[in-house]
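Quick one, T. Sequence first:
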Amino acid sequence: MALGGAAYAATGSPEAAAGCFAGGFLIDVDHYLDYLLFEKQWRRPGPRSFLSYYFRLSPRKLVLPLHSVELMSILLVVCFFHPWPLLVGYWFGAAMHLIFDVLINGECALKRAFFFYLLSYRAWKRFDADQLIDHVIVSPDAGKRPIHYFFTWRPPEKKVAEAASVSSTESMAG
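Structure tokens:
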């Protein structure tokens, strides 16, 4: 929303502001599409079930077509030749979103942070979540109270592998 406000202040364009919002926030609609189409969760389409499923780290497939460097590259070329304010705003919002994703998710959950955002890399790994993400420690409340967890979520401090090596080092020292 801040980027949309800044875009509106800088350009006076409500289309650019709306594009920033869509790119920065609505880009995550592909998580829901993955949930329905690839995880086959049609019987539980509600937001609570969706969040619970993701917070329990249940996904088996991670297609996420909107979270793609390839798509962003295509959109950048289109923006260069046709600088429509809505599309330019979307590109900036999505770029900001993906940068934050790489920094936050790459630190706590992804095996290869930058490569994860290449659709071709995910395809090469057959979109298999086990090959793409690390197993992280998740609060038991994550699946039980997903709406609360969504608004209070903080990145895990350590990946499971790091936590296991720390605890085994501590137990050897003790």
